[in-house]
Design a protein that fits this description.
There is one protein chain. A two-stranded antiparallel sheet has the order 1-2. The chain is mostly helical. It contains eight helices and two strands.
């Protein structure tokens, strides 16, 4: 049976994330993710929901190694990430990292970035 560290590493790589990207998505450092994946440490209870969202895996799957009871239920839950309680939210860990970085920018830099992203024409 695979360990939590193995399941975490597999889930991260399946999402196409580096340890640094996953760390940023859950608000921690690359070294924390590395420690988890090498079995030296485990995430805190409060970190688990952010980890679940970033990796788009159920906690049963990540912690216990048990597949989700209903694949469609997990898919439906994931589809709700786009809009939750009337607010637009990130759909995956990479988008979450981008959104978090954007929100941390000062107002003038946000405006400049949005100006760069405007379509030509």
């Amino acid at each position: 049976m695979k360990s939590f560290a193995d399941r975490l590493r597999e889930a991260r790589t399946a999402c196409g994330l580096t340890q640094e990207q996953l760390g940023f998505a859950v608000g921690l450092t690359k070294s924390s993710i590395s420690a988890w994946e090498n079995g030296r440490e485990t995430p805190s209870f409060h970190t688990l929901p952010r980890l679940r969202e970033a990796l788009r895996r159920s906690l049963d799957e990540l912690i216990c190694g048990q597949p989700a009871t209903s694949g469609s239920a997990i898919k439906d839950q994931r589809a709700e990430y786009a809009v939750h309680e009337g607010k637009a939210v990130a759909r995956d860990a990479a988008e979450l990292a981008l959104l978090t970085r954007y929100r941390s920018l000062p107002g003038k830099r946000r405006a400049a970035l949005l100006e760069l992203l405007k379509p030509e024409g």
